[in-house]
Amino acid sequence: MLHNIDPAHDHRHLFDFFKKFGFVEQVVKPPAARYAIVHFRQPSAAQAAIRAVNGQLVSQLNPGGRMQAELRQQQAPLGRETAIVVPTTKLWVGHIAPEATLADLTRVFSKFGPIYAPELRRAPESGRKDQWGFVKYSRVEDAEAAYAALRFRVVPELSGEYNLKLQYRPLS
After folding, report:
1. What pTM was computed for the model?
2. How would you list the strands of the sheet with 2-3, edge to edge?
């Protein structure tokens, strides 16, 4: 977890800065926030990054103040994939109406490029009636186009009267 970041920086800037310490899996930084979470594949990379920036004046991240960095262990619930900010070819789609079908999901998302392995899921034991799904594209540009066009949009044939939720997901 990083604190005291210049709020003008986005996740891509942070990704580019921290990749010199090791493989960065994801960077989460809300717009205009002064904090960010950087996930490294190896704990040693995270520790190296913390040693390099904690308590330091790092002009690339905040020329006017010292950085604060701490290591936090992340444990996602079993079976749960985590959302990421860096675009990938896989999208999680939420707020899918109960009456929507796999064909509806495929028809809406294939407008942005060929998709493969679309999935539609439901959790009746939760008491919720809505569905969620996943779509995978061959090209990240297609996923980005779908994300930009459909995120938080009402698509009646897929989401009924609700806004779709979209998140990039790891390619596992």
Report:
1. 0.54
2. 24-28, 35-40, 2-3, 68-69
